Amino acid sequence: MNPWLLNQGSKPSLHPKLLGLRVKESFLQNSRILSCRLRQQGHNGWKDGNRLKLLDKNVKAIQESHAQLRKDVDGITKSFASQHQML
User: Fold this and answer.
1) Rounded distance, CA 45 to CA 29, Å?
2) What is the pLDDT of residues 29-77, one digit of tens each?
3) Number of C-alpha atoms within 13 angstroms, CB side, residue 4?
4) Cα separation of 70 and 53, whole Å?
5) Among 7, 21, 32, 42, which has the highest number of CB atoms less than 10 A from its own CB?
6) Winning range, highest mean pLDDT, from 4-8, 15-19, 62-66
7) How far apart are CA 13 and CA 72, in angstroms?
8) At what angle do helices 51-86 and 16-41 cross, to 10 degrees?
């Protein structure tokens, strides 16, 4: 039996450590996307005087990243709660 899977009836679910790794991977992926966006925008935005537009884009990207992380963490907590109720 795979130690990373927990059997719950007929439907296996991920082990809590694996779920935590998924959140970390999601965070790292979102961080990479954001840093790429920042590098692509580079100095052109600053030279053209579009500072507020550039900052707004970056703030929105960060907020989207945080919202996705919150969803992932909520999913994990719900999964843990349901696993503990079944035990």
Assistant:
1) 24
2) 777 777 776 666 655 555 556 777 777 788 888 888 888 888 888 888 8
3) 6
4) 26
5) 21
6) 62-66
7) 15
8) 170
Report the alpha-carbon distance of residue 31 to residue 37 in Å, rounded: 10
Reported pTM: 0.42
Are the beta carbons of 33 and 53 closer than 8 angstroms? no
User: Which secondary-structure segment (H or E) carries 19?
Assistant: helix 16-41
The CB-based long-range contact list for 11-16 (8 Å cut-off, 24+ gap) reads: 13/79, 13/83, 14/79, 16/76, 16/79, 16/80, 16/83
Measured at the alpha carbon of residue 65, what is the angle toward residues 57 and 40, in degrees to the nearest 5?
45
**58 SS3 class:** helix
What are the tokens at 61? 């990207």
